[in-house]
Amino acid sequence: MTAITFIHPNGRSDRVETSDGESAMQAATRHGLDGILAECGGNAMCATCHVYVDDRWLARLPTMADEEDALLDGTACDRLPNSRLSCQIRITTELDGLVLRLPERQV
Q: Does the CA dihedral 27-83-5-97 come out positive or negative?
């Protein structure tokens, strides 16, 4: 199993176990994490699974698709250079230990 750490705006962190191929959003919702709404169910249509990728991990992620890039312009919290949609982050063993920070709000 691969682990992801989600850090909440208040500094609390949740470490969740996930399987290869699962998205970070699916792992978060399966574990009932607050902060990932996932209103569209992971179809890259809503941006309610916005996260900030820890800088140490950003270069390890695949290049962002145009659809994700466009959706990130409409997030409830500021888009930053390390913003991604967690539904578009597919977990692999190379991402074991991935750290994602949750924004203050999703809507």
A: positive
pTM of the model: 0.94
Residue 90's Cβ-side half-sphere holds a number of Cα atoms within 13 Å equal to 7
Contacts of 88 (CB under 8 A, 6+ apart): 23, 44, 64, 65, 68
Beta carbons of 7 and 101 less than 8 angstroms apart? yes
Cite the DSSP H helix spans in 8-83.
Answer: 24-30, 55-58, 66-72
pLDDT tens across the length of the chain (107 residues): 899 999 999 999 999 999 999 999 999 999 999 889 999 888 888 999 999 999 999 999 999 999 999 999 999 999 999 999 999 999 999 999 999 999 998 87
